[in-house]
From TrEMBL:
Keyword presence, Lipid biosynthesis: yes
Alphabetical list of Pfam families matching this protein: Biotin_lipoyl (PF00364)
NCBIfam families assigned to the protein according to its UniProt record, in alphabetical order: BCCP
CDD domains in the record: biotinyl_domain
This protein's pathway: Lipid metabolism; fatty acid biosynthesis
Presence of the UniProt keyword Lipid biosynthesis in the record: yes
Protein function: This protein is a component of the acetyl coenzyme A carboxylase complex; first, biotin carboxylase catalyzes the carboxylation of the carrier protein and then the transcarboxylase transfers the carboxyl group to form malonyl-CoA.
Protein name per UniProt: Biotin carboxyl carrier protein of acetyl-CoA carboxylase
């Protein structure tokens, strides 16, 4: 591991909010610790807008796709991240997504890419089934063992 890779790793650790990362390779070991406490994530809900007496124009269509509620996840398999890095749903911005909700997958299907230290690692499915939910936003940092997908097994 050269100094550039170590600097990239330090930047990644500081941006991702991880408190500690250890990497061990043949004849090399590095541990990076931050002094910052873990970041808390807060979600706020705004009250609905007041009703308008008369509306001349129709309401605009929603921009985001509606998300189907998943009531019982006990019969689904969770595919988790095998490493820390940045999660990508396609090989590049102009390429199609590897998988979408509703897609049938088989063992060995590429689901996503996780970039770690400038290395792009294809993550393959170990199960066959149907993608029920993508749990991570594209280009987001992921932690080791973080859930990425919910799959309904065949």
């Amino acid at each position: 591991m050269d100094i550039k890779q170590i600097q990239d790793l330090i930047r990644f650790v500081s941006k991702s909010g991880v408190n500690e990362v250890s990497i061990e390779q043949e004849n090399f070991k590095i541990t990076i610790k931050t002094n910052e406490p873990a970041q808390a994530v807060y979600h706020a809900t705004l009250p609905p807008p007041a009703p308008v007496a008369a509306v001349a124009a129709p309401a605009p269509a929603p921009v985001a796709e509606p998300v189907a509620a998943i009531a019982d996840t006990s019969n689904y398999i969770t595919i988790k991240s095998p490493m820390i890095g940045t999660f990508y749903r396609s090989a590049s911005p102009e390429k199609p997504l590897f998988v979408n909700v509703g897609d049938e997958i088989s063992s060995g299907s590429v689901l996503c890419i996780i970039e770690a230290m400038k290395l792009f690692n294809e993550i393959e499915s170990e199960v066959s089934g149907r993608i029920v939910k993508v749990l991570v936003d594209n280009a987001s940092p992921v932690e080791y063992d973080q859930p990425l997908f919910l799959v309904e097994p065949k």
